[in-house]
Structure formats: C-alpha cells, structure tokens
Amino acid sequence: MADRRRTTLDAVLIILPPSETKSDGGTGPALRLEGLTLPTLTPIRRRIADALVDLADDVEASAAALGLGRTQLAEVARNASLFSAPTRPALERYTGVLYDAIDVAALSAAARRRADERLLIGSALFGVVGATDLIPAYRLSAASRLPNLGTLGSQWKPDLTTALNGLGSDLVVDLRSGGYRALGPVPGAVEVTVLTEKPDGTRSVVSHFNKHHKGVLVSSLLRSRRTVHDINVLAAVAAGGGQRTEIASDRELVILTD
C-alpha cells in the first residue's frame, strides 16, 4: 500500500485472491518481512517463512506438502531462495486470469494510485500483502500443511482478522476463495458471486471464468472516480463497467453472465 503504516482507508478496500502462478525475477531488494503491509503480522510471517525455507532442503517432502508434481519441482527452489531472491511489487508478482483482467500495465496514473492504496492480496505465506509490497516468487497454498506448524489456519487465526479489521475501511470487498477467506475472515465484508444465466432463467455458478469477471470488476473500481462506500455504489460501478449485477443481500453482489 502507498503507506504501509496507515491504519485507516477511505472508501472501498478490495482483497484479491492470490495465484499459484507468479512472475519471475524482479529488481527489488531481498525480502524484508518488517516492510510489508500490516507489520503486526511479522512474527507469524517469520514463523511460516522459516518453516517453508527449511522444508525446501527436502525436495520430496516439499513436493508432498505443497502438492507438487514432478514438473513443478522448480517451485521448491523458489522457496529455498525466499530471503535472497529479487523482489517486485505484489500486484506485478501475481499473475493469471484475474490479474490479466485488471491489466495493471494499462492503468492510468490515477487508477494505479487507487490500486496501490486500495488493494490487498491474500496470501498463505504473508496473510495479506499490499499492492506495492516487495515480495519474491514462492509457492504455498492455503490448504498446505507445513511440518510442525499444522494447518495455516491455526497460524493465522485470529491475528489476520484483527489486523484487517484495524484498517477501518468503510467497505471491504473480499474476492478471496473460501480457503483464503478462512485464514482471516472479515466480518461484514461484501463477497461477489459469479453466475451464468441461461435463456430459460436457470442459473449456475461460474467456475472457469469466475476470476476473469472479478478482475473486470476490480478494473472498473480502479478506473472509477466514485467513492464506493456501500454495495449499491459497488453495483453501480460494476454496471458502468458493462457488467450485469444483482444485490442478493447487503453482503453479496451477484455478477450475471450469459
């Protein structure tokens, strides 16, 4: 985030899901856990990061714990170099369908400032990171279990929720998947459901393109100058970006696709 020590945010705060795929390289300095957004989480980040690096000494154990196949063993080397590898801003580190839809490179200077101030990204390793936080590539998912640490949920609860609540945003839009939300639930956050509506009116949950439509929503929010302080304005901004929405409740926005 633009100021990693801020305790409040105006208007909307958006928590993005992470991605398994991450860009390589970077030009930033080695990881400094103390420099990340929400520094009160540093002790937990240190504990998980140290366990992940130690696990990387055993490639087979790492593959088992992280659910890696034989073609993915390079991910273990990434974890081994967690504290020495070059870093880059988190919003440029995570890749995939949702981030393609946001299209960071195409954001105007004003939209990029809003991204830096309003976006957080969920992480099994870091809890959350801000858009500008400098991080290396790594591999760890919410469902992973590290030796001697148990589940990641047991590490993050309740500290992650407490830290997120301390940001004091008017509105939180939580786009994380269930597994990542469970690491640090945000009571009162708005969640977004993507549904396909068929000509006969029946609806079904979108799976493959779910993240794309959420990325389009984020793009609209970053490009809009409106102050998004409730779900009604959120729906209006989505509509302005060409998406069809319904307000299912004061805590759920539905995006409808054909």
Average pLDDT number: 94
> How many DSSP helices?
11
- Work out the helicity level: 25-40%
User: Alpha-carbon distance between the termini?
Assistant: 35 Å
Backbone shape: globular
The H-and-E topology, N to C, reads as EHHHEHHHEEEEEHHEHEEHHEE
* Radius of gyration over all CA atoms, rounded: 18 Å
The major sheet is characterized as: 8 strands, mixed
Our estimate of the beta-strand percent is: 15-25%
Strand tally is 12
Low-confidence stretches: 1-9
Which oligomerization state do the chains in this entry correspond to?
single chain
Structural domains: how many: 1
What structural class do helix, strand and pairing data support?
A: alpha/beta
Q: Can you describe this structure?
A:
By secondary structure, the chain is of the alpha/beta class. The protein has one domain. Helices cover 34% and strands 19% of the residues. The protein has eleven helices and twelve strands. Strands 1, 3, 4, 8, 9, 10, 11 and 12 form an eight-stranded mixed sheet that branches. A two-stranded antiparallel sheet has the order 2-5. A hairpin with a 3-residue loop joins strand 6 and strand 7. Helix 10 packs across helix 11 (231-240).
TL;DR of this structure?
The protein is of the alpha/beta class and 258 residues long.
Question: What is the fold's blueprint, element by element?
Answer:
Elements: E1 12-16, H1 42-55, H2 59-66, H3 74-80, E2 88-89, H4 90-93, H5 97-102, H6 109-118, E3 119-123, E4 127-130, E5 134-135, E6 145-146, E7 150-151, H7 152-156, H8 159-165, E8 171-174, H9 178-181, E9 190-197, E10 203-205, H10 210-223, H11 231-240, E11 244-249, E12 252-257
Parallel strand pairs: 1-3, 1-8, 8-9, 9-12
Antiparallel strand pairs: 2-5, 3-4, 6-7, 9-10, 11-12
